[in-house]
Amino acid sequence: MTTKSLVFIPESLTKKNQIITLNHPNYEENNSDITLLLSDGSDNDEQKVYWIQQNKFGKSQEGSNLTVKSTFYFKTHELQKGGIINNDSIYFSTDYDLAFSLLSHFYKTHKMDFISKDFESKFETLNDLHIGLFESNNNWKYINKNLLKKSLMKLCHSIEEDLGGDTMEVFFKMTDVKLLEFFEMKIEKIAKDFPQRLLQKINNMYPALSIQSERIQEQAKYFYSLQLMASLVPFKVYEYVNAKFRTSLYPDFVNYIEVDYKKTIEQNQQEELLLKSAKSLNQGLQSNVPHESGSTKKKVKTKVVPKSKGLDSFFKVKK
């Protein structure tokens, strides 16, 4: 029995599209493939790539594959045109930069000699690179060369060679400069529209951050923008980029974390110790106050009140 699913796709897509799977860009920690939706790209010769991701609303204690909710769908102005899908998951598409998959491939095939010193990378043609990608996953054949070239330009230094007869050959080699430029561009784009909920969590982690300079607060966004992309790259690549940016892109925030925040913690600890010391001293002073061994009662003088004759004297007959 086929289960229907609800998939949200961009309005710009035509009917001619291709769905493929590629290795997850962070293949070391995620063995699953990613599902990509490719536009035809024949109209304007520019292919678009979207990542189809799943959001599951129902959670069952008995099993992750057990459906516990259903999805209702209908048209806004035509409620009668709808239905019920026995599926508690929806699928949505987001823009995907193919450069992340290229980055993963380059690292896996030892073409990043600035990270792995044991290997030496070399310039390669577009055709050679496309063949290498196809050998690792034959779904790369659905990626047209114009999109591939555009993605390679983001990560690689390129050289054009005139082969004569109006024929130009482009050679590509990945470099650390291009890698850092790529991530810096991504970081600045994310920081510009930084998620407010995440920013609130960061301020809760570092309460004094909100009173720091604008430069430090902006660099905090840069730092965490890179963390948001960490799941899309191999760890060694993230480690390399982070080490470089700690001294160039967000050094003041790193200094705040390692020095100023540490001082704040130490100051709070000192104040807590002083408070404990004051309490201990106060308790000691109270314990040194002498107490009398026995209690003596003071004698209370009572004034003798003349005995009243009361009402008897009023009714008593006088002699």
UniProtKB/TrEMBL annotation:
Keywords for this protein: Nucleus
**What segment(s) does the record annotate as region Disordered?**
285-304
Q: Name one Pfam family in it.
A: Ydr279_N
The segment(s) forming the Ribonuclease H2 subunit B wHTH domain are: 100-239
Identify the GO cellular component terms for this protein. Answer: nucleoplasm; ribonuclease H2 complex
At the top level, the lineage of the source is Eukaryota
Q: Known InterPro entries for this protein?
A: RNase_H2_suB, RNase_H2_suB_wHTH, Rnh202_N
Is Nucleus among this UniProt entry's keywords? Answer: yes
Q: Where in the cell is it found?
A: Nucleus
**What GO terms describe the biological role, i.e. biological process, of this protein?**
RNA catabolic process
Report TM segments. Answer: none
Rnh202 triple barrel domain span: 9-97
Function per UniProt: Non catalytic subunit of RNase H2, an endonuclease that specifically degrades the RNA of RNA:DNA hybrids. Participates in DNA replication, possibly by mediating the removal of lagging-strand Okazaki fragment RNA primers during DNA replication. Mediates the excision of single ribonucleotides from DNA:RNA duplexes.
| PANTHER family found in the cross-reference section | RIBONUCLEASE H2 SUBUNIT B (PTHR13383:SF11)
> What protein name is recorded for this chain?
Ribonuclease H2 subunit B
